[in-house]
Amino acid sequence: MSPQAGPAHPAQQPIIDTHIGFRESGNDQYDFITRQTKDRESREEFSFPAEYMFKGVPRDLPTDDPVAVTLRAMDRNGIAMGMVSVATESGRRAVQRHPDRFVPQGSAVDPNDIMGTLWRMQAEFEEFGIRSVSSFAAGTFPQVALNAAQMYPIYAKCVELDIPIFACAGIPGPRVRAAVQHVELIDDVMFDFPDLVFVTRHGCEPWQDLAVKLMIKWPNLYYSTSAFAPKHYPRAIVDYANTRGAHKIIYAGYFPAGLSLERIVDELPQVPFRAEVWPQFLHENARRVLKLPGERAQ
């Protein structure tokens, strides 16, 4: 089955990218991962910990003005808005100077510092109006599972602030243990926090079929396509979007960490989504989940 052309074709849709960032100088942003890896490639050779998985990583980007570089890439590829972390100086500058283009996401949560995380969430909500927070369970050190007790105050704070959490689920790319991100753990979280909006990141593989079952079960559970080139979107996810799950699948890229926007946009038209799925996937679902104001003109 090929994608359907017409008014809903991806090339004619605004795009909200729920996973975009900036190329900063140096590699110290990955120290939190490499301090727990043990293989030589991860510790000594890779420019980022999941390098072995990606081809055509945009490496030679200038770092003198990371915000301008990302904005130009967005403009070239039809990205109307991008969600960025305010944990970095570039992220803070982006959301302050270009509020019509960048959506503020809070710093990654750290369940090994519960009170510090709760204070930071509140402070970032008040200062930047963060629309979400993120979680990388396999990257915590020591690792903390998605359904661990340390995460529960963080989930409660998300409900209090009425913001979603975007959480990595499935086998992580970096060579660290994976059990803390098993998709089945999300069932516990949604049972205990039915009002929490939970969006998975980074594919949920090899448990993508389970992810679909859980999305059918839990109204506030969503899936985003971060870190996957469109030609590698799991078939189970495409089929779910084309049947009963069009309102549950949210576009996310991975620029500049692992994918170029050019590659993503070039491959998008080959994804066999039905015509009516495209606007929901590319911008409507993100706008609803992140509670964004009216549509930005192209």
Automatic annotation (TrEMBL):
Keyword RNA-binding annotated: no
Ordered alphabetically, the record's keywords are: Hydrolase
Taxonomic superkingdom = Bacteria
Please provide an example of a Pfam family that matches this protein in its UniProt record: Amidohydro_2
Q: Does the keyword Cell cycle apply?
A: no
What Gene3D superfamilies does this protein map onto? Answer: Metal-dependent hydrolases
Q: Which InterPro entries match?
A: Amidohydro-rel (IPR006680), Metal_Hydrolase (IPR032466)
Q: Which residues form the Amidohydrolase-related domain?
A: 17-292
Question: What GO molecular functions are on record for this protein?
Answer: hydrolase activity
Stated name of the protein: Amidohydrolase family protein
Taxonomic lineage per UniProt?
Bacteria, Bacillati, Actinomycetota, Actinomycetes, Mycobacteriales
